Amino acid sequence: MRIVVINHVTLDGVMQGPGRSDEDTRDGFPHGGWAAERGGDDDVTRAWGRRLAAGSGYLLGRRTYQDVLAHWNTQDSPFRDALNNAPKYVVSNTLAEPLPWPNSTLLSGDIPAAVAELRKTPGNDLHIMGSGALIRTLAPLGLIDEYLLCIHPLVLGVGRRLFADGFVPTTFDVADTISTATGVIIAGYRPHPRGPVRAERG
């Protein structure tokens, strides 16, 4: 199965707290809900819907897992049943089974090795939402197959970025792009097969 990152980001790469004001206030982040505040975007909804169709699953870090569980299971939304029914793999060395959300499996210990083994199994895509620390752990090891990014036309200047300082240099191939009426660019990127960029020695 493939591992696919699917996230909202700003022009300056911020991925923190796109959905609501209290989603992620770490480090005093004051701009929570920046994606939701732009209003609905049918193209974004369709793009996410196609990717998160029945049969796909999720690979989530602990913080994202607990936040999504706490939020969506209190909402009267079609997303609730879809999320409950989907297979979810949760990366954590602090949580213990049984996990509270249906269809959840804990991955602990050597996380990269566990994800590498999971990736070898046949099946539909596993999507990483949020989970910046998990992304930064897996990316240098070539364990992420694709990034589907909804790039919003705003700059926040502060916040946790998807590709933060220290992220392994990587060249990407463009899989597809869509420009929406609200200015969001939906872009699919695949890490180039040659792997991480290596700095040339002088």
Mean pLDDT score: 89
What fraction of residues sit in β-strands?
A: 15-25%
| CATH classification class of the domain at 53-146 | Alpha Beta
In terms of per-residue confidence, which ranges show pLDDT below 50 for 5 or more consecutive residues? none
Can you write the helix and strand succession as a string?
A: EHEHHEEHEHEEE
In terms of structural class, how would the helical and strand content be classed?
alpha/beta
The CATH superfamily name of the domain at 53-146 is Dihydrofolate Reductase, subunit A
Q: How is the CATH topology of the domain at 53-146 named?
A: Dihydrofolate Reductase, subunit A
Distance between the first and last residues' Cα = 40 Å
Second rung of CATH, namely the architecture of the domain at 53-146: 3-Layer(aba) Sandwich
For the largest sheet, list the strands in their spatial order.
4-3-2-5-1-6-8-7
Please tally the β strands and state the result. Answer: 8
Principal-axes shape call: globular
Please work out how many helical segments DSSP would assign: 5
Radius of gyration, in Å, reads 17 Å
Give a brief description.
The protein is an alpha/beta fold and 202 residues long. The protein is built from 5 helices and 8 strands; from the N terminus they run βαβααββαβαβββ. Strands 4-3-2-5-1-6-8-7 form an 8-stranded mixed sheet, with helices on both faces.
Structure description:
The chain has 202 residues and is an alpha/beta fold. The protein has a domain at 53-146: 3-Layer(aba) Sandwich (Dihydrofolate Reductase, subunit A), CATH 3.40.430.10. The protein has helices at 42-51, 62-72, 78-85, 111-120, 132-138, and strands at 3-10, 57-61, 88-91, 104-107, 126-128, 146-152, 172-179, 185-191. Strands 4-3-2-5-1-6-8-7 form an eight-stranded mixed sheet, sandwiched between helices. The longest helix is centred in the first third of the chain and has 11 residues, at 62-72. The protein is globular, with a radius of gyration of 17 Å. The mean pLDDT is 89. Residues 15-40 are annotated as: Disordered. This is Deaminase reductase. One of its GO terms (molecular function) is 5-amino-6-(5-phosphoribosylamino)uracil reductase activity.
